[in-house]
Amino acid sequence: MIYLKVLDADGNFVSAEAIETPIYVKYQSRNKLLLQCPALHAQGIVSANGSETYQLDGRDAIPGMVHTAVCITQADYELLKDTDPEDNNPTPPDDPGIEVLTRAQLTAKVAELEETNTMLMECVLEMSETVYA
C-alpha cells in the first residue's frame, strides 16, 4: 500500500490517495509514451482509479503532467483523506494570533482527546477501587 498527497502545478493540495497496488510509469521520449516500469526507474504513478497519471515528486519531469504526487505516511493520509481542497485558504480569525485548524486536524485532535479521556476514566475507576475497597 502506498499513500499519496496530490498537488496541483501551484503546489496546492488536490487530494489524498491510497493505492493498494501502485502502477509506476516512466516517459520514453523517443516514442513520446508512458511505459510501465519498476518503482526504481519511475517518474510517475497512475492514480487509484486509473484515470490519471501523476508526476512523482523529486523525479525527472514528464512533459504535460499537471499534478504531482508526494509519498506520505498512513497517518498523514488519514488526516488528509477527508480534507476538502477548497479549505486551502480558510477565512482568518478575527484575532490573527489564533491558529485555525483544518477539519482533518480537528478530527485528529478530537480522537486524541477521546483517547486521553478514556485513559483518565480508567485511572479514576482504578483509584476508586483502591480507596473504597
How far apart are the termini? Answer: 50 Å
Radius of gyration: 22 Å
**Helices and strands, in N-to-C order?**
EEEEEEEHH
**Mean pLDDT across all residues, rounded?**
87
Structural notes for this entry:
28% of the residues lie in helices and 26% in strands. It is α+β, with helices and mostly antiparallel strands and 133 residues long. A 7-stranded mixed sheet has the order 2-1-7-6-5-3-4.
In short:
The protein has helices at residues 74-80, 103-132; strands at 2-7, 13-19, 24-28, 33-36, 44-46, 53-56, 68-72. With 133 residues, it is an alpha+beta fold.
Which SSEs are present, and which pair or pack?
Layout: E1 2-7, E2 13-19, E3 24-28, E4 33-36, E5 44-46, E6 53-56, E7 68-72, H1 74-80, H2 103-132
Parallel strand pairs: 6-7
Antiparallel strand pairs: 1-2, 1-7, 3-4, 3-5, 5-6
